[in-house]
Write a structure and sequence with these properties.
The protein is α+β, with helices and mostly antiparallel strands. It starts with a strand and ends with a helix.
Length: about 160
């Protein structure tokens, strides 16, 4: 199953240094039956984009918990064996839990914000929890960060990318 895992720049560094993403369980996002039902008229690409955006919002929450991380949303895209993934519709329609560490060989790509998004991401991180609770002003800030497109990198490009940050 293709899983979109929220990350931070520090998480990416650990992935490169250790060769795997952990510790488990990892919360991720995927095309689940509940997501398909919610986006009933969407094609596969639109569903993947919806899961990616959910993971990017999850990245904001991780950055909030790790002030040493750069203010850039990051998402690791991995092809995880189905038996390592548990659906969690009780948490949200696209949420899954990954029960085993994700080795680099399963990472298909990484998405990360460019430098131009840092100011908007920092503002969103400061209010993401308020946005989750329904604050319209906070949601406006989060939408500002989500207006920046995530850049795509192949898994072998992550190490060199981090050296530039």
């Amino acid at each position: 199953m293709r899983v979109y895992l929220p990350a931070t720049t520090r998480t990416l560094r650990e992935l490169v240094d250790t060769g795997e993403l952990g510790p488990v369980p990892l919360t991720g996002f995927a095309i689940t039956p509940q997501l398909r039902e919610w986006y009933r008229d969407s094609d596969e690409e639109e569903l993947e984009y919806a899961a990616l955006l959910e993971a990017a919002r999850g990245s904001l929450r991780l950055i909030d918990q790790d002030p040493a991380a750069l203010p850039r949303r990051a998402v690791v895209v991995a092809e995880v064996p189905d038996d390592h993934v548990t659906l969690r519709p009780d948490l949200d329609r696209a949420v899954v839990r990954v029960t085993e560490p994700v080795p680099m060989k399963l990472v298909a790509a990484v998405h990360i914000d460019g430098a131009d998004a840092e100011k908007a991401v920092a503002a969103a991180v400061a209010v993401v929890l308020e946005a989750d609770l329904g604050s319209a002003d906070a949601k406006f800030e989060v939408d500002g960060a989500e207006g920046h497109e995530l850049l795509w990198y192949a898994s072998q490009e992550v190490g060199p990318l981090l050296e530039l940050l």
